[in-house]
Amino acid sequence: MRLTSLRRSTPFRLALSFGLLFILTVVATGGVMYHLLRNGLDAQLDTALNDTFQVVSSTYAPDDIEDLITTLDSYANLRPADDGIYSLIDSSGKKLAGNFKAPILPEGVLTVNASDIGLIGNAVYRLQAGKLGQNTLVVGRSFAQMDAMLRTVLISLIWAAVLAVLAAVGGGIFLANRAQQRLDGVTRTMLDVSNGRLDSRIPLRNADDDLDHVFKQINDALSRLAGLVEGMRQVSADIAHELKSPLNRLRLTLEEARRTHGAQGDVAKLLDEAHDESDQINATFEALLRISQIEAGARRLRFNAVDLNEILNLIEDVYTEVAEDNRQQLVVEQSQKTCVNGDRELLVQMVVNLVENAITHCPPDTRIGVFLRRDRAAAVITVADSGPGIPSAEREMVFRRLYRLDKSRTTPGSGLGLSLVKAIADLHSARIELEDNHPGVKISVRLPVL
Known about the structure:
Distance between the termini: 53 Å
CATH class of the largest domain: Alpha Beta
Structural class: alpha+beta
CATH architecture of the largest domain: 2-Layer Sandwich
Number of helices: 9
CATH topology of the largest domain: Beta-Lactamase
Largest sheet: 5 strands, antiparallel
């Protein structure tokens, strides 16, 4: 990835931002730790000075100062002058014991430079001075060890900050490259789609992360888009194919009417045929428009609780006699009361289309069954018949708009009944299952129940 692209990369910017936040956290934590450590070491040094002062002063007796001098010289001989310093002076300022001659100092704990107490170098000392009779005892420790320890800690913190910077930049570049590869897949897919390759999909890594979920939703949207575009292509072709014949018939009928009118023939019959053809064309366009409106999803605003048992009772009342007139038998069977969330008018239309499709395309003596049952969280409406059925090769195509089986082209209709059924089912998040009924066909619609 180029540097300019890297700077524009959102993953890199996010990684770098978190890296900077981490660095600031390390610096702030290090500063607090350094401050606490220094205070702790200061307190520890003061405690050590006080303990040493108390031990040495405990050997003092007003009538015997020799034990104090011996003890103090022992301490002075055990430590180098740049680490621990000890001094016992009398009231005149004369050194009685120790490894340096202390000047006159106030009682208490104080911090002095080496030059302030007559020592060579740049060391800094922590001193505790106190009176022992007429004498003054001074005990001191250098800050050298503590400074060395703090210096080590400070260097460690600096290295930690440097490593944090390298980790932030390196991790940012790594994460940016990794994320950019996935985003490049989106770019390539969108470019393919814009160039007409609607079967192109964003590659998934099956990582079950948020990007995979987003990409899956985009792929689902692309699949729906491809289906809609293919549907538009199919509809355009089918409209041209299906309307060609009625338009030609209408044209021939009108020509015949004109010719018959000139010969004083029966024009009324021909005009009736032309009227029927125009009605069929209008019905086709109205059905196409209705399907488009349903697929747009606006009818979801009208969803409420719908009793499917009431719909089946209506179907039984209306279509039992229609089936009998066609010398067919319509049977309606229901189970327990079942309600779904949906548009009642459209659900009635869906069942009506299934029943009318069976009545229209089945011969006399056919048994048509309409069944309602519960299957766990789904309500299943099934319309089954014992008619000629649908060839297995054409079962997926019968839901296409304007698609008609060859054997059905001589019967009335536009080939949009099952397309409307599918549009209504999709609007209600339902699944359509088309199966062989041995003989005949069985169509089931599975709707989610309330």
